[in-house]
Design a protein that fits this description.
Elements lengths: L1 E3 L9 E5 L1 E5 L6 E5 L7 E4 L13 H4 L11 E3 L1 E5 L5 E6 L4 E6 L2 E6 L4 E8 L1 H16 L10 E3 L1 H4 L5 H10 L7 E4 L4 E3 L2 E4 L7 H9 L4 E6 L3 E3 L3 H5 L14 E4 L5 E4 L5 H17 L3 E4 L17 H16 L4 E4 L4 H4 L5 E3 L11 H6 L8 H9 L9 E3 L14 H14 L3 E2 L8 H12 L4 E3 L4 E4 L2 E4 L1 H4 L7 H13 L3 H20 L4
Parallel strand pairs: 1-3, 12-13, 12-24, 13-16, 16-20, 20-21, 21-22, 22-23
Antiparallel strand pairs: 2-11, 3-10, 4-5, 4-7, 6-9, 7-8, 8-11, 9-10, 14-15, 17-19, 18-19, 25-26, 26-27
Helix pairs in contact: 7-8, 11-12
């Protein structure tokens, strides 16, 4: 363990190569910056105390780095910082993957899961310190080509898995001349998670669907989750030897899907699995899709026994490089559900927050279960705002924006917050159906897609868009812990949420809701 005195970095930042490092804090911190592992994991400035372990534990694989889920001290992936009463911060950040930062009493501590790595330590104003850290990351990981980010229409948040050939064709036609650059088909087209061929809802096949999109003058985009494998898939039955294993030889769980099957992780260091990945992504390009949204990518960095013995995030980063090359020249690569730091320099864009939703916050998830990584607009804004420091390194995707009022419970002020955040990120997307747009909503979308405001940062949560001030402070505070009967209800719900049959019931209710929603499209 290397110990650094505060006086050594008080005037100038410092880079230290060591496996583990600790910095003595000069004062008691008033806030701690915790940075979540992957796209959906919480990133926020919070009180310098441990947070409740989010419930249910059944979803930890989806939302956290399970290696550290039950860590009792404040902590985060790759980088952590403390804020003092005078507003200055002390930051400790890794310049390598496979690292973690902890607040241990009066010390900021960094640990490497691999060998010695470079650590960056700095003290000063928040903007100055993060700018220095970002510069050093860019030198080592690379900076994405920050040319124009495509404007995207995505099928997920309106249609979910209920997409089919007829609905999508109708939607593509009705989008008319709205200035989208990409029409992206999301989950629901495939035979299974692991079997990436068109299902019975797309009888003409995926090449025909891509051709339909391109006939509208846009690029064709497609969602896949190539590092996940469902226990119901042909891939699982025929190639279970390609999957990541735990210390006891069992499959490493990566969650549970809507159709009631366990999900596992592809071992992307296995030579046959690599060949399969390359062939899959080349096939998608031959179909005519050149915008790739690859999701649930955390599976590639789960802890487990790999064919090739190497640190887990290093293995994941290598897999991203293989997939990127297989996509071919000119492809746009968006990573989602991805560990953040290992993806830098390996893709064009990163989702940096949880999924948005048609509601501001969910009482069950955010209050009773204290889960701030679940889909919800407030959850998404909170984490995205606290990751805007990534903007100069890569295109940052805050998820879609809403404009329509039909089938949406968000207040206009909350829709506006989402839209403003997208303008700050300079990554614009929506899932709103043209079938549900009023003439005014349609024109609002057109104006938004064409907007290029001048963005300036005023403070941690406040910005100007041209001359207009926008402030995200209302979204960043965490919901207070429940007490009394509410706390008991949360414990019971958390316990039930670890039972598969209960999770299955909740998921079936979602599926029924999605189908009812789709049935109302033409009404």
């Amino acid at each position: 363990m290397t110990t650094i005195q505060f006086s050594e970095i008080q005037a100038n930042s410092k880079i230290i190569k060591t496996k583990d490092i600790e910095i003595e804090l000069p004062f008691a911190p008033v806030k701690y910056y915790r940075h979540g592992w992957q796209s959906w994991s919480l990133a926020a400035w919070t009180d310098p105390v441990p947070l409740p372990i989010q419930k249910p534990a059944f979803f930890h694989a989806y939302q956290t780095d399970v290696v550290y889920t039950r860590e009792p001290n404040p902590h985060g992936s790759w980088v952590g910082a403390v804020e003092f009463a005078d507003g200055n911060i002390l930051l400790l950040g890794a310049l390598a993957t496979d690292t973690h930062v902890f607040l241990l009493q009066n010390q900021l501590t960094g640990r490497s899961e691999a060998d010695e790595v470079e650590w960056f330590a700095a003290y000063g104003s928040e903007s100055q310190v993060f700018d220095e850290y970002v510069r050093e990351i860019g030198i080592r990981f690379g900076v994405a080509d920050k040319n124009y980010a495509p404007r995207v229409w995505c099928s997920w948040y309106s249609l979910y898995t209920t997409i089919n050939e007829t609905i999508l064709h109708q939607t593509f036609d009705l989008l008319g001349d709205l200035p989208f650059d990409v029409l992206q088909v999301d989950d629901g087209w495939q035979q299974d998670i692991g079997d990436w061929q068109a299902n019975e809802k797309f009888p003409s096949g995926m090449a025909a669907l891509a051709e339909k999109i391109k006939s509208t003058g846009r690029r064709a985009g497609l969602w896949l989750a190539p590092l996940l494998v469902s226990s119901s898939s042909q891939l699982f039955r025929e190639h279970s030897d390609w999957l990541l294993r735990d210390e006891k030889g069992g499959f490493v769980s990566t969650g549970y899907n809507y159709w009631g099957h366990d999900l596992y992780a592809l071992d992307a260091t296995h030579p046959d699995a690599i060949s399969w990945l390359v062939a899959l992504l080349k096939q998608v390009r031959r179909w005519g899709f050149d915008y790739y949204k690859l999701d649930f990518l955390y599976a590639g960095a789960m802890k487990g026994r790999r064919y090739k013995d190497m640190p887990r995030e290093t293995a994941y980063r290598e897999a991203l490089g293989v997939m990127r090359e297989a996509m071919g020249a000119g492809a746009f690569f968006l990573t989602c559900g991805t560990p953040i730091l290992p993806a830098l320099g390996m893709c064009d864009a990163i989702r940096i927050g949880p999924d948005v939703s048609h509601e501001w916050e969910n009482h069950r998830n955010e209050y009773l279960l204290q889960n701030f990584s679940t889909p919800g607009t407030k959850n998404a804004i909170r984490t995205v705002v606290n990751r805007l420091w990534l903007k100069s390194l890569i295109h940052i995707d805050p998820d879609v924006e809403y404009f329509v009022s039909r089938e949406n419970t968000l207040e206009e002020k909350h829709k506006k917050q989402l839209q403003d955040l997208a303008l700050i990120c300079n990554f614009k997307a929506t899932s709103d159906l043209p079938q549900w747009m009023t003439p005014q909503e349609r024109e609002n979308i057109r104006a938004f897609l064409g907007a290029t405001p001048t963005v300036s940062k005023l403070s941690r949560y406040a910005y100007t868009l041209d001359e207009r001030i926008v402030d995200f402070s209302s979204a960043v505070e965490l919901t207070k812990k429940p007490t009394g009967l509410a706390a008991l209800s949360g414990e019971i719900l958390g316990w039930l949420g670890n039972l598969k049959f209960f999770v299955r019931i909740i998921m079936l209710m979602d599926i029924v809701s999605w189908r009812k929603r789709a049935s109302r499209i033409s009404k």
